[in-house]
Design goal:
It is a single chain. With 449 residues, this protein is of the alpha/beta class. The chain has two domains: 134 residues, Urease, subunit C, domain 1 (Roll), CATH 2.30.40; 296 residues, Alpha-Beta Barrel (TIM Barrel), CATH 3.20.20. The protein is 36% helix and 22% strand. It contains 17 helices and 16 strands. It has an eight-stranded mixed β-sheet. Strand 7, helix 8 and strand 8 form a beta-alpha-beta unit. It is globular. Bound molecules: N-(iminomethyl)-L-glutamic acid and fe (iii) ion (FE).
Length: 449
């Protein structure tokens, strides 16, 4: 059987779970999923044309338009889901996947008790990755990026956000963004195989480079004057992000920079209150940022402010795990009315992991979230934090047919099989792009991100 049809009806799905809507789900809404049994998914030209239970497909109602759609679905070629569970493709909404070099020695020091920021102060940390990334060609960054994206795809990630921030100079920051742009184009080039869709973020304000040591404001002014206009003109990034952290970019510098980036037309994200309780979470709410990320040390008042502002709380459990820090209290964020997204933060320093299965396990077993809420955090709310929830993140009519089949009868197993990859098939815009450990050179799908 060919791996993809223009038009097919995937049937014999044991259980299909999906959040609904095109806006982030906040508070109690995060747990409200549509759950279908014996479901089928009718896909036409890479989009979902109908989704429902097999019994509903057979039953004809009074609406003639719906009836003709059902008739079409019933006559379409059928693909057997093999009584597997189905969920939307995962959206990993916070990663730093384009970098060169490793920092395994730093990881070793951290296991010996040296704090992350102490390594940073000694000139290690982000600046070491900057050195290696500056020395890498665009081709090398593309190759490194592709290998990481393939692994993400195997874990069910169909859309990924990628940040620059290991260049800290004009040329290298742009080179990281060009590498991501080239990898997006990869989706149309056979036989290289498909990768997740990529949404790019400009994180030039990731650290202060040696050239500007002790002058963070001057460095931010350089980014605004010498780099951001090109990023904008060439449409290289949708978001601007900053590492708002004690000893890196303080609150006032962050506000100054982000206000200007916003005026230049960018939506905002912040690395906020990750290590020290500086107040970046409150700043994100004040500036109506799309998301505030990390939030390990966010204050109660600022959590309330996030909920009120509608700024998505992007929690990154793998980073807390890797830094041996207490996890963000996901339960509390949700009960306070926040929309929580979950993401990997994959990077060479604080979190060298892309493990979606471990995110599920930590969210449910350590952060007080239900598996339904964790699924919403990794799908709809991830998509909303990238401003693409009108297109991906749920399995609803009109959305891209980005979905996963799991080696389990129910999506509830996503946390129950702790840390295990249950994904057996990945579909991107209707095309089977990964199956049982093999990346497939499936029919190309157009990349519209
Ligand atoms: O999200 N905190 C800043 N940035 C990354 C870490 C980057 C690094 O250590 O290379 C983070 O944790
Ligand atoms: Fe990060």
């Amino acid at each position: 059987m060919p791996s993809v049809y223009n038009r097919y009806c995937l049937h014999n799905i044991s259980e299909l779970w999906t959040p609904e809507g095109s806006l982030a789900a906040a508070g109690a809404a995060m747990a409200r999923l549509k759950k279908l049994h014996h479901a089928c998914l009718y896909v036409v030209d890479g989009r979902i044309a109908w989704v429902g239970e097999e019994s509903a497909l057979a039953a004809m109602g009074s609406d003639p338009a719906a009836n003709s759609l059902k008739r079409e679905a019933a006559l379409a070629p059928r693909i057997d889901a093999g009584e597997r569970a189905c969920v939307p493709g995962f959206v990993d909404s916070h990663t730093h996947f384009v970098f060169a070099g490793w920092r395994d020695d730093e990881f070793y020091w951290r296991t010996q008790g040296v704090p992350y920021m102490e390594i940073h102060r000694r000139g290690g940390g982000i600046l070491r990755s900057v050195e290696a990334t500056r020395a890498a060609t665009e081709g090398e960054l593309i190759d490194l990026g592709r290998a990481r994206l393939n692994r993400m795809l195997s874990l069910g990630v169909t859309t990924v956000e990628g940040k620059s921030g290991y260049g800290l100079d004009r040329d290298t920051e742009l080179r990281q963004l060009y590498a991501m742009r080239a990898l997006k184009g990869n989706n149309q080039v056979l036989p290289l195989g498909a990768v997740p869709d990529i949404v790019s973020t400009f994180l030039g304000a990731h650290s202060v480079p040696h050239e500007f040591a002790g002058r963070p404001r001057a460095f931010l002014a350089y980014l605004l004057d010498a780099v951001l206009p090109t990023v904008r003109a060439q449409n290289l990034a949708s978001f601007v992000d900053i590492f708002c952290e004690k000893g890196v970019f303080e609150l006032e510098d962050s506000r100054w920079y982000l206000e200007r980036a916003r005026a230049a037309g960018f939506a905002l994200k912040l690395h906020a209150d990750e290590v020290a309780p500086l107040g970046g979470t409150g700043l994100a709410a004040e500036l109506a940022a799309v998301s505030a990320d990390h939030l390990l040390k966010a204050s109660e008042a600022h959590i309330q402010a996030l909920a009120k502002a509608g700024t998505i709380a992007c929690l990154l459990p793998l980073t807390a795990f890797s830094l041996r820090e207490p996890y963000a209290n996901g339960r509390h964020f949700i009960d306070a009315g926040c929309a929580v997204a979950l993401a990997s933060d994959f990077n060479p320093g604080s979190c060298n992991s892309q493990s979606i299965p471990l995110i599920f396990a930590l969210a449910v077993l350590q952060m007080g979230m239900t598996v339904e809420e964790a699924l919403t955090g990794l799908t709809l709310n991830g998509a909303a934090s990238l401003k693409i929830a009108d297109r991906v993140g749920t399995l609803e009519i009109g959305k891209d047919a980005d979905f996963l089949l799991l080696d389990a009868p129910s999506p509830s197993h996503l946390a129950y099989h702790s840390g295990m990859n249950l994904v057996v098939e990945v579909y991107k815009r209707g095309a089977l792009v990964w199956k049982n450990g093999n990346a497939l050179d499936a029919a190309p799908f157009d990349s519209r991100v």
